[in-house]
Amino acid sequence: MFEPTLLAALISTWLLLKYWRQVKDQQIILGFLLFAVTTGMFTQYWGITGLHLFTGGVVIWPVLVLLLGDRFPWPLAYPLTFIGTLIPDLYGAGIAADWHNGWLFGVGGAGFRGGAFLLPLEALIAAAGLNKFGIFMRRRGYFSRRVNIEEDAYPKDRDRRTR
Known about the structure:
Blueprint: H1 3-19, H2 26-43, E1 45-47, E2 50-52, H3 57-68, H4 77-96, H5 115-139
Antiparallel strand pairs: 1-2
Helix pairs in contact: 1-4, 2-4, 3-4, 3-5, 4-5
Transmembrane segments: 28-46, 52-69, 76-97, 117-136
Keywords: Membrane, Transmembrane, Transmembrane helix
């Protein structure tokens, strides 16, 4: 049952094409994607129920949406989590078969209950919620990068030593 993985790949491609140009700090986002993929590859293991891996994208992308606000569009949590899950999944399937014939058999095999389909949805829902929370908090002055400081923290006539 590869249809959910293909559906997630199509949705991811569409979202990346639509929103990637809106990302202000693309190199930082690619660095976090590399971190998420690396974490997934080094924490994966095969158990009796299949491949298990820690997908940091479920945590990383919603938190970045919260902190970066309009510098990182929240719909990108879906494709970035999908990529961060798919690459370790492909690598784990290759390890299981010693990189020979038929190694793609295990990728996306869980269908609509698999991580390649569910984890991006969970990250997208969390990112949408944290985006709304971030907007609410920014209206109250939190997470703002646009702070105006009228004067220096230590004017020249003030003693810097503790009192």
